[in-house]
Amino acid sequence: MKIRCSCGELILDQTDFLPYKARFVSDMDWDDVHEGDVQERLREWSRSMWQCTGCGRLYLNDHGGGLQCFVPESAEAPVDLLRSVHRDRWKRPMVGNWQTDAERGELWWGFGVADEGWEEFDRWDDLERRYFEVFERLRGKGLLRSAFLRCAGRIVHEWPR
Description:
Blueprint: E1 2-4, E2 10-12, E3 21-24, H1 30-33, H2 38-45, E4 47-51, E5 58-61, E6 67-70, E7 92-99, E8 104-109, E9 117-121, H3 124-140, E10 144-151, E11 154-159
Parallel strand pairs: 7-10
Antiparallel strand pairs: 1-2, 3-4, 4-5, 5-6, 7-8, 8-9, 10-11
């Protein structure tokens, strides 16, 4: 999904763990969500919102699936309202992926935090070495949620197991 903000910024929703996206549940439904299968109820009863990192506008899904926009009262409004409460201590995922047919790979970790990265590689050995460097650093700092390294569709390393 792409939202073109009226300030000109493009808000992309094409992956998980976005620092400018949140899901919300009406206070009227809050107690009901926590009964039974919580995850299923959250999927059914939550709606999405996104914040423009340029101007701070909030875009919310309404009950019909439409998009509503709310503008901050001042230009000084924070543009990171939907970020994790853990801020830079947020536990992030890490993914390394090597595509043998294209002879290229990529490594990414974190989004919207101080220690984030996305790197490209044209040699498997370089990707593998860098993956384990970043893995050990993030795990040592307690900043890792999950990690896996894949080569030609086969998982070479996965944490936690």
